[in-house]
Amino acid sequence: MLHDVVTSSNEKPVMRFAKVRVSTDSSNSWIVRNEHEGFIIDCGCYWEHGEILARKWRENFPNDKLPAFIFLTHTHSDNILGLPSLLNELNVTQIPVYVSSVGALNEMNYWLEIWQDINPFESSTLLDKRQSPNQFRYNEHIKVLDHPLTMFGDEKIHIISNFPAAESIHSSMIYISTVRALFTGDLVAVNSHLFVSPSDTYSDSDNHVCNWIGVLQSLSCAFPSSTRLYPAHGDEQSSMSFIETIDANIRWLTYMRALVFNSCNTT
C-alpha cells in the first residue's frame, strides 16, 4: 500500500513521505525524500515488502540514485527482514543501515536466533530462505549510528532514543523539526493495534507496558501539538490530532495492561 504525504517549505524543495506496506496488518516502511535525495525508515518483514519498497524508491529515483541510508527504529523481525529483498531488488550489496545503539543490535540478534530456530524461511509463502540468518549476515549490514545525520541541505535528522524498555527493549524515533514529522516506530499506532502479549517475561512484562505508557505521556509534553505522526503500524495521522492520537494510545495500553496483567496500577 502506497501513500504520499507532501510537506512544503518556501525555502527548500518539497519534502515527501511515502508509506510502503504489503497489507493493512503488516508493518510500514517510510521513504523520506525531496526531488534530489532521500532515506528509508524500517524495512518490513516479508520478501515482497522489500521488493515493493525498492520499486517505490526507483519510481522516485530512476537514475540509480540510492537511499542515503536506512534507519531502523527498532530491531524486531517485522522491521528488518525486508532488508535482503530490498538490496536484491535495488541490485546492490550494501546501503548504510543504522540503529541507535549496541543494545538494539543485541536485541536484533536475540530475535534472529529465535527465527533461526523456528526457521519459517523454508516453508512460508511470505518469507524466503534468502532472508534466513543462515544466508544473510544481518550483522555485516546493520551498524550503530556514530555520527549526526543531515539531509536535504542542512536539515538535521533528529534520532530520539534511550527510552526505557517498552514495546521493544531498544526503541528510537526520528523527528524532522522543520515539518514537525515524528516517525514513531512501534511506540505509537494510528488506527492499528498496540500489541500486548499475556506474558510477564521478555519482552512484554507489566513494567515494560508501564514504561510504554510513560513514554507516550512524555510525547505530549516534548513535541508541538501540530506534530504529525508516521507510525510503523497503521495509518498516518488523519482526523485525530497529535494529542488525541497519543491519548487514544495511552487509553488502549492502560486498558490492556489491566486486562492482561490484572494490574491495579493504572497510572
Q: Explain this structure to me?
A:
With 267 residues, the protein is of the alpha/beta class. The protein has a single domain, classed as Ribonuclease Z/Hydroxyacylglutathione hydrolase-like (Metallo-beta-lactamase, Chain A, 4-Layer Sandwich), CATH 3.60.15.10. Helix content is 30%, strand content 19%. Helix 1 packs across helix 3 and helix 5 packs antiparallel against helix 6. The protein is globular, with a radius of gyration of 18 Å. This is Metallo-beta-lactamase domain-containing protein. It holds the Pfam family Lactamase_B. InterPro entries: Metallo-B-lactamas (IPR001279), RibonucZ/Hydroxyglut_hydro (IPR036866).
Any descriptors?
267 residues, alpha/beta, Metallo-beta-lactamase, Chain A, seven-stranded mixed beta sheet, globular
CATH class: Alpha Beta
Q: Give the class from helix and strand content and strand pairing.
A: alpha/beta
Radius of gyration: 18 Å
Q: What is CATH's topology name?
A: Metallo-beta-lactamase, Chain A
> How confident is the prediction overall: mean pLDDT?
86
Integer tally of domains:
1
Instruction: Give the biggest sheet.
Output: 7 strands, mixed
CATH architect. name = 4-Layer Sandwich
CATH superfamily label? Ribonuclease Z/Hydroxyacylglutathione hydrolase-like
H/E topology pattern: EEEEHEHHEHEEEEEHEH
Query: What coarse outline follows from CA principal-axis ratios?
Result: globular
> What percentage of amino acids are in beta strands?
15-25%
Put simply, the count of helices is 6
The separation of the N and C termini measures: 37 Å
Organism: Adineta ricciae
InterPro entries: Metallo-B-lactamas, RibonucZ/Hydroxyglut_hydro
Domain Metallo-beta-lactamase: 26-233
Protein name: Metallo-beta-lactamase domain-containing protein
